[in-house]
Amino acid sequence: MFSEMTQSGLVRPEYQQIDTWLKSQSIDDLKQASSEAETLFRKIGITFAVYGEGGDPERLIPFDVIPRVFSASEWNVLQRGVIQRAQALNAFIADVYGAARIVKEGIVPAEIIFNNEAYEPVMRDFMPPKNVYSHISGIDVIRTGEDGFYVLEDNCRTPSGVSYVLENRRMMSRLFPELFMNGDVAPVEYYPDILRQTMESVAPMNAADDGGIVSVILTPGHFNSAYYEHSFLADEMGIPLVEGSDLFVDGDKVYMRTTRGPQRVHVIYRRIDDAFLDPEQFNPSSMLGVPGLIRAYKAGGVTIINAPGTGVADDKAIYCFVEDMIRFYLSEEPVLKNVETFRCSEPSQLSHVLENLEHLVVKEVHGSGGYGMLIGPKSTADEREQYAQRLKAKPSAFIAQPTLSLSTCPTLVEEGVAERHVDFRPFVLTGDISQVTPGGLTRVALREGSLVVNSSQGGGVKDTWVLTE
Amino acid sequence: MLSRVAENLFWIARSMERADNVARLIDTARRMVTLPNESGRPLANEWSSILIAAGAGSTFKGDLEHATREEAVEHLVADPDNPSSIYNCFRNARENARAIRFGLTSEVWNSLNSGWNELPGQIGMLRTRKAYLAEFVDWVKVCQAQYRGSVEGTLVRDDGLEFLRIGSHLERADATARILDVKYHVLLPSLGAIGGTLDHYQWISLLQAVGVQRAYHFVTKSDVTRDGVAAFLIQNEVNPRSLSYSLYRVVQSLTQLEEYYDRQTSCRIRAEVMLSGLRTADIEQILTDGLHEYLTWFIESVGNLSHEIGLSFAFAPPLTVEDTEEKGETEGQTQSQGT
Q1: How far apart are CA A366 and CA B337, in angstroms?
Q2: Is residue B51 part of a domain?
Q3: What angle do CA A435, A336, A142 make, to 5 degrees?
Q4: B1, B323, B334: residue with CB nearest A369
Q5: Which of A23, A391, B17, B268 is least surrounded by CB atoms within 10 angstroms?
Q6: How far is CA A46 from the centre of its chain?
Q7: Rounded CA separation A195/A236 (Å)
């Protein structure tokens, strides 16, 4: 198990400042700060909603006051790695909706692309501005050793969590301003600026002739669990937060209804799923979308980010091929490795998985939220037996991975400061260029020994520092 | 601004004003019940009258004619099935505010949020202690005052503020008309009683309910009479709760919006026509022809004006919770399990 702060009893250089600081703080000081943070988060209303579990649906994600730190050279690797990955994924999406060279070359099997639920035939032979599909990509990275960075999954649809990156930093600098005095923590605050620039860089041609590019965020509404983030980003960028009913399509153009009359919209950062985007094209009963939106999009009257159909690139079955994509499209070696993954659709891999169930984690290809998976080492023989039946019934619906030991980071818990497992999600923005703000969302499993960082299962968040040279 | 945001603001203001006025209606009934009935004949039930005046005659599930105080208060205050219950007014105001959280100041938000948070406790007190009703009414008025104060004191002076003002004043015009109409529903024991003591007290109750009893004497320098009260509540623009004053404020705000947006609106014209109709109305004639008929027509006109405002600024029907709850956003193939 890799501890981010201490190796062989020595504090790693990037954690020197944290070490000094921690020694100057009593546990009570930290707990006091922690409860202040909670009060503030609640007051600002930084909540997410959980429905169907009873009680108040508005929940708070626990904020841990001890930051997670990357050195400049570690960041250099991570940054190159996630940008490379986002570029390859974008090239892949462009390819599967175009010539499908990667299929013709026999690198990725046709069925896992074209039979994929997330594949949108409506996108075929359509090229969005700058040929970018996944403008905002959340690449989930885990660490198992000094140089052991792995990508656990790619999120190319509507990855969330960036509001916590910004709010966590604001909270840290409010609670412990002294930590930021010497300026060796790279800033993350400009994320909304580069997000807005990214959006504007992919606006339809001639959009600027209308007297300025109008960008909006499209939210399912204030009952949605991530509504806080939607409204936060709109506010930070100074652009309108719209719902489907605020927009309408006239000809090839999209307008929002304002009290001054219709106003043209050029770029839509949608935070609703493909299926709900346009009732004419997808789910006809959707109340959330905008009838005719896809028509206007394909006619070049509006840019939708992320593009419809990007989900074809972040499926667990596709994941196995991302390293190959990097070699194929970019002619580069992957900077970040994949976690070793067994595709159960391959008979030889299936038998390996069945023989080693107690050592593996098995996941559904289309599963999400931690449901429907088997964590081998923590399962009973009965559970494994039942899971094996499901596996054999439909092997192609499953993949398996070895259980990896996530790195740990000092974290404030009831008993004091203790090591807890963490993961990491940086956000890559792709428009004219690909960029990533130095930092990202570190999630921490607050329960001792737990590897599950999901907020719905006892996960918290940390401020993430990238040190300047 | 987005039409939906304008609409949210409009409904925040309407909901808060409505809560205030439902509380005032309840207060009217509370006062009327205590009036001496010297006629020796049974009176019409004040509580059913209030339910009808509040527009809750159709949502009330019990025996409307014999509605008890407990039933009426429960329905008007706490019933989730009554769209105009104080519970729903507070809820709507807060939900509309939540939808535009960043468009409001934290003081405005806090005033709405804390009212909503305190409401269950207040309803609890009301249910356990009958005498708490007067205090409850005061509490609702205080909430409305805090909300109004935070709007006036902290909100940016722009088009958004005008939509709030339009909502408040349109709702108030509607509410004052309804309160005045209570007098019609509380039928007198006999025709002969008109102008009698009970009749007199009932008119006073109406003034007390809208909080302008002293203002009436101060402004009119005369005794409480039927004609006097009707004129004061319909036409007197010194009275902040009169129909005329409320409409005047609506016209002002719509005119201001036309200036901001540099365009004419049909709703402003409609509002002006209504206002001049009120100003030139012959109160004596109205009373002869039937106050109830006049007020019914007026309440309808307010509804039409509200609709027209929606058309002029492109309001849309709002989504329900079921439409948007937990649908609509997937970030990627899954959420990390970190295994």
Answers
A1: 14
A2: yes
A3: 95
A4: B334
A5: A23
A6: 18
A7: 10
DSSP A233-259: HHHHHT--EE-GGGEEEETTEEEEEET
- The ipTM estimated for the assembled molecules is 0.77
pLDDT score for B193: 61
Contacts of B331 in chain A (CB under 8 A): 138, 155, 157-161
Q: Which fold has domain A205-301?
A: Rossmann fold (3.40.50)
Any CB–CB contact under 8 A between B332 and chain A? yes
Choosing among A136, A259, A461, which should be mutated to test the B contact, i.e. which has the most B CBs within 10 A? A259
CA distance B145 to A40: 27
What percent of chain A clears pLDDT 90, i.e. is strictly above it?
75
Q: Mean pLDDT in each 10-residue stretch from start to end of chain A (469 residues)?
A: 92 95 95 92 71 67 95 96 98 97 96 91 95 97 94 93 94 94 92 96 87 94 87 92 94 94 96 91 83 96 96 90 97 96 90 92 76 84 92 90 92 94 97 95 91 78 94
For chain B, the straight-line distance linking the first and the last C-alpha, in angstroms and rounded, comes to: 46
- Where residue B53 falls among pLDDT bands split at 50, 70, 90? confident
User: How does DSSP assign A334-390, residue by residue?
Assistant: -SSEEPP-EETTSHHHHHHHHHTGGGEEEEETT--TTTT-EEGGG--HHHHHHHHHH
8 A C-beta contact, residue B184 and residue B292: yes
**High-pLDDT (> 70) share of chain B, %:** 87
Give a yes or no: residue B339 inside a domain.
no
Which CATH code fits A342-402? 3.30.1490.270
* B322 pLDDT above the threshold of 60: no
Residue B134 lies in a domain: yes
Contact B1 A258 (CB under 8 A): yes
Helix (H) or strand (E) holding A201: helix A191-201
Question: Residue B91 belongs to what domain range?
Answer: 3-317
Q: Cα–Cα distances in Å, from B116 out to B86, B142, B171?
A: 10, 13, 20
B202 or B305, higher pLDDT: B305
Nearest CA in chain B to A456: B335
Percent share of chain A, pLDDT over 70: 96
Indicate the domain borders of chain A: 6-189+315-338+406-466, 205-301, 342-402
Which ranges in chain B belong to alpha helices (H)?
3-33, 46-53, 69-77, 86-99, 106-128, 133-154, 159-185, 197-210, 213-220, 226-234, 243-261, 266-280, 283-289, 291-312, 321-324
Nearest to A51 among B3, B325, B338 (CB): B325
A 194-223 residues with CB below 8 A of B?
A: 220-223
- Nearest-CA distance from B110 to chain A in Å? 10
